[in-house]
Write a structure and sequence with these properties.
mainly alpha; 25 helices; extended; 5% strand
Amino acid sequence: MENSWHQLKPRTGFLVRLADRLTDQSWQTLTQLYQPIVGPSAAGLYSALFWLPNRGEYQRHATLLGLLGMDLAHFYEARLRLEATGLLTTKVKTEAELTSFVYELQAPLTPVAFFRDDLLSVQLLGVVGEEAYRTLVAVNTVTPHETPGEQNITKNFLDVFHVDGQELQRLPAAITATREELPSENAAPALTPTTQEDFDFKLLGEILEHSFIDTKALRSYRQLLLTEHATYNLDEVTMARYVGEATDLATNQFDPEQFKRVIAQHFSQQHRSQPVETPTATAPATADTDLNAAEQALITVASKSAPALFLQGIKKKSGGFLTDGEQRIVRDLVSRQLFPNSVLNLMIYHLLVDEDRPTLNKNLMDTIANDWSKSKVTTPQLAIKKIRERQQAPQPSRRSRNRQTTVKETLPDWAKKPTAKPAATQAKLSDKQQQQLQARIAKLQEHSNHGKED
């Protein structure tokens, strides 16, 4: 990301591509749902890229900056916001020492998909407030209504059209050939990509089958359940209990925000009174020769622990406590699924133990996560190497800077010993000047003696 910033100049070339087809609904979603999050500058950049004349041809950034009326710094900030929310994919290309960028515009999510995304919905709620959020949900979603006595008489496709069954069994070559050329449905970058699941949703469904909970409606929150499972290492039985506590008995409606609060509260209560045992570290059977024994043991512990449990163990050992804000920071990173839990745990360890910070800082965590994501850090071994690079970077630590500042502030000019100044002054006088000075002193003494005698 830093390299991208340094490569960006007003004369740098770029072109724009459309990864998806944008509809009127897309622009409404961009304005009402995305703009409160990314800000008007980023929304304006998205619109400018779409409507840019000859967008498929290479142009200079100076042209775009002139249309937007912004400088490179504000353009770069707006671009990052579009990238972070999945609206823009940026690619860089260097040929013959000339750098150029390709900006691929992604269509906004549908309103339903937007409100089901944990990161986007939580961010929007924090910006506009609960009342405005509920209004936006009502305006951007359509709930079908049925009145008593209505009967569905809609015909299906085969009721209206005649289709030869043999053609369906052996599709024409024109159809099969063009299908292979079609882009995949999930071509757009997902904010929460899937990972290997070790949670048994079938078992969860069997546990909830005889309860009052609507298991079909719960399927739309699959990603949320996976995030909470990965963050807190919740088994299916415990997950079913928390789902029940977050479901309204009167309406059978599952409340995802209440679900998060219930889990966070239970986790804090369980570990506030009970000491958290840190897993015993044992060196792995296939040790990495580039890592020392302590690093290998740390990787083993980080690979066995859920992030919330790993973080709680560190806080307990240092005498601190896990805050609600730290739980949200960890949950957000887990939901993005940028790294395995082992890598995320090493990031936590580096900040709290290596850098001796009392709490996790969201901005700093996001900065490191961006750097590691760009560097393709997908294993704990690579995470250790990134930590080494960060520690070996030629930047003074906060403690060093504070010590230097303290020394300078507690040593004012008047406290310094002026031992060298008299010698220096005398050295600058010539022999003649010293004789003249002695003569003036003698005259002053003579006048002083006469005054006493009078």
